[in-house]
Amino acid sequence: MDFRLTEEQVARRKEIYKVCEELEKKKPKSYVGFESQFDNQDGWDFHRYCAKEFAKRGWLALGWPEEYGGTGTMMDKVLLAEARGYYDLPGSDIFGVSMLAPTLLAAGSEDIKREFLPKIASAEIMFCELWSEPNAGSDLAGMTSSAVRKGDEFIVNGQKTWNTGAHFADWGFGVYKSDPAARKHHNLTFILNDMKDKGVTVRGIPYMNGSHVYNEVYLDDVHMSAKYIVGQENEGWAVVNVLAGFERSNMDMVYGLVKAQEELVNFCNETKRNGKPLSQDPLIRNRIAEFACSIEAVRTLAYRVADQQNRNEMGLMDAASVKVFASELLEKFGQIATDLLGPHGQVKHSKWAKLNGSAEYNYQACFVPIVSMGTNEIQRNIIAWYGLGLPRMK
Amino acid sequence: MDLRYSEQQEILKKSAKDFLTKECPKAKVRELEQDAKGYDPALWQKMGELGWLGFNIPEDYEGMGYSFEDLTMHIEEVGKNILPGPYISTVVNTFAIVEAGTDEQKKDLLPKISNGNCILTLAWLEENGLFDASGITLKAAQKGNDYVLNGAKLFVDGGHVAHNMIVVARTKDGAGEDGITLFLVDAKAAGIKAEVIPTIAQDHLCEVVFKDVAVSAKNVLGKVDKGWAILQMLIRKGSILKSAESFGGLQAVFEMTVAYAKERIQYDRPIGAFQALQHKMSDMWIALGTSKFLLYEAAWKESEGEPSAKEASMTKAYINEAYKLITALGVKLHGGIGTSSDHDVPLYYRRAKAADTAYGSTDYHRELVARHIGMK
Asked: Domain for residue A1, yes or no?
């Protein structure tokens, strides 16, 4: 095996870290954690600002074919995720850049690629995802919202939910039941729509910490153009599966953990209790070392996923492992950090907060990666069924 | 970056697997647990012929001169099968001679080890059970051209069958790292008495008592009083290789468990159809994946001669726990049959505890990790 980055990659990494380090200085004070980009206008403006900065360097089109404006390699994309995670920066639209763009490249028509890829690469438009419904969460195929074909259009009706960032997004990508008579998995169509379309209503669902991340989206007689179908009509399920295959190495989450560990170590070194630094307490040393071992373990596995992606291999099972393990480590970080801070563990970002309030933040925000993108229980199903070949639940 | 086994490594893996499947079936593993020697001399000879004992010995001394990473991968395969006897100890301890021995010591011992004619063990731990330097109390007093050893060592792997042992002794008063010296000792010398300790893996760890054992000054390994650095090197490499063995073992149990879950029928379906069991097996898979590249990152750094102490300790601390987790789940998922001494899973479950303490426990290595990550 060879864990070494090439000289070119090392130089690239340095360049990316430098840009991200500069961007971090412009981060609004209230920006703590990944979900902050959706919570308020300052967060969203910062997201767009970072996206523009990345776009002008070609960093939102890393690893794409050159004919669609691609630059760099898949590994560069991993390095950018690493640096963004470390500096807790937004700027890469998880829906547009990470999910839709590779899906369009794999399954989109030439027209749709030509229309949307440049807008994603330039950060001109941001996407949201319109998948889950009140009665179709993990079991997505059970959705009821309908798209009825009428000439060159679909008339779409229904309700979507858990739509991250839909209150700011310019466009959405959704799946709708387009042929009620057809058998399961051949009755859905994947369509893009402008979130300003008539009949689209977005309502916030406050997260447990009060922040605005998720939404409900109501669709009332929304006219969506048939030219914005991705893949084939009634074959949206196949597109959903292609998209799910582009779940990433989660390197940003992993490097968020790397940074969290550094901050925790510094805090313990600098904080005295009973005249002794916390860092000299053997139980605390043991607990943080255990956390550090787990972070290094998942960091190396995330690199394995990146290495596979770089070779155009999918590595779905390893990617599922990273998703589960890293998000549950984030949960653990929330617990360790709030414990170590003592009474300050409960303090939100404010003048009384330690670690900028990241302990209290992650104690709650950790459930976003745990339940989204296929809950961790769904990931465990995926590993069991497709990885281990165990019988599928009927 | 390329995180795949090379083609040559795949071939090495396969040959190790084929050899052990034939030569060391589980019946033999059980038999050797009860055997007085605890290893099979004929098998040891064959391993010597195949070069298994000389993987890390330079070709100049009749070894194979393989890389540390290749060795790690080989040991992974050995761990999958289980190979009773002081094999990994001998291989790890050989590094002390390769890296710190005089030319005379090398010429004397390395070809013998490589050819399967010398079991080399390490007499390190003592009654106090400490892994750090303060645990070393066995005295070596200078007397003319000799040193005279007095004291007792515990958990000496195959101490009763070893030909030579590296004894970690105190040559200066105090409890620090300075003043520790390593001696190459003939295991059959007068005044040495070894007795097998009953242990969880029945792996023939011994108490070795030294009573006025005279060792010539030319058998000092490295420099007098400066042996701790060599021992640290052995702990580092041993941690990686012991973790490789554990990683092999946890894969074996994982595979056995998934296979059993597919064939065992209850409630008219394979038990592997139940999600309660599926998710435990998925967790086993996740523990396996996270172990693998942590291990190989450490092995790769060690191979490249880069600083690897942090990664070695992280690997040992992490895989210690992963091995115990996976083997315990393996027992539970097999149900009643998994608790039987006739079943293979408990062979690994017991070894997971034994592996955990070899070359430093989880807590010992976490303390080293705490230092490496900058906790003051």
From this structure: no
- CB distance A91 to A80 below 8 Å: no
Residue A300 touches partner B, C-beta closer than 8 Å: yes
Residue of chain B whose alpha carbon sits nearest to that of A300: B293
Chain B's closest residue to A377, CA to CA, is B279
Do the domain assignments include residue A110? no
- Full domain range(s) for residue A229: 128-239
Query: Do A187 and A214 sit in the same domain of this protein?
Result: yes
Smallest CA–CA distance, residue B317 to chain A, in Å, is 7
Chain A residues whose CB is inside 8 A of the B246 CB are: none
Q: What is the ipTM of this complex?
A: 0.96
A304 and B3 within 8 Å at the Cβ level: the answer is: yes
Do residue B376 and residue A290 have CB atoms under 8 angstroms apart?
no
Decide if A261 touches B, using CB distance below 8 A: yes
CB A164 within 8 A of CB A128: yes
Domains of chain B with CATH codes: 7-118 (1.10.540.10), 121-226 (2.40.110.10), 229-372 (1.20.140.10)
| A194 and A170 fall within a common domain | yes
Per-residue pLDDT of A55-109, as tens digits, reads: 999 999 999 999 999 999 889 999 999 999 999 999 999 999 999 999 999 999 9
The count of domains in chain A is 3
């039987």: which residue's tokens?
Answer: B340
Alpha-carbon span A374 to B3, nearest angstrom: 27
Residues A259 and A235 in one domain: no
Say yes or no for a CB contact (<8 Å) between A297 and B294. Answer: yes
* Whether residues A255 and A379 fall in one domain: yes
Q: Are A340 and A283 in contact (CB under 8 A)?
A: no
Q: Which of A70, A92, A114 is the last residue of a domain?
A: A92
| Amino acid, res. A308 | Q
Chain B residues whose beta carbon lies within 8 Å of the beta carbon of residue A293: 294, 314, 317-318, 366, 369
Evaluate whether A239 touches A103 at the Cβ level (below 8 Å): yes
Does pLDDT of A247 surpass 80? no
**Residue A61 is part of a domain; what is its CATH number?**
1.10.540
Confirm whether A113 is domain-assigned: no
In CATH, what number is assigned to the domain containing residue A352?
1.20.140.10
Together in a domain, A227 and A333: no
Indicate whether A268 and A307 sit together in one domain: yes
Cβ–Cβ below 8 Å for A380 and B279: yes
- Sorted by sequence, the CB contacts under 8 Å of residue A61 that are 6+ apart come out as A68, A69, A70, A71, A101, A117, A120, A121
A268 within a domain of the structure (yes/no): yes
pLDDT of residue A140: 81
Mutate to test the interface with A, among B1, B68, B274 (most CBs of A within 10 A): B1
For residue A316, is pLDDT > 90? no
**Cβ proximity of A304 and A317 under 8 Å:** no
pTM of the predicted model, to two decimals?
A: 0.96
Contacts of A75 in chain B (CB under 8 A): 1
- Answer yes or no: do A211 and A270 share one domain: no
B56, B225 in Cβ contact below 8 A?
no
Residue A366 sits in the same domain as residue A279: yes
DSSP H helices, chain A, are 7-24, 36-39, 41-55, 74-87, 101-107, 110-121, 236-244, 251-270, 282-310, 316-340, 358-365, 367-371, 376-382
Chain B contact for A70, CB < 8 A?
no
pLDDT 10s digits, B264-281: 999 999 999 999 999 999
Instruction: Return the residue of A nearest to B258 by Cα.
Output: A388
Q: pLDDT tens digit string along A186-243?
A: 999 999 999 999 999 999 999 999 999 999 999 999 999 999 999 999 999 999 988 8
Check residue A393 and report its DSSP letter: P
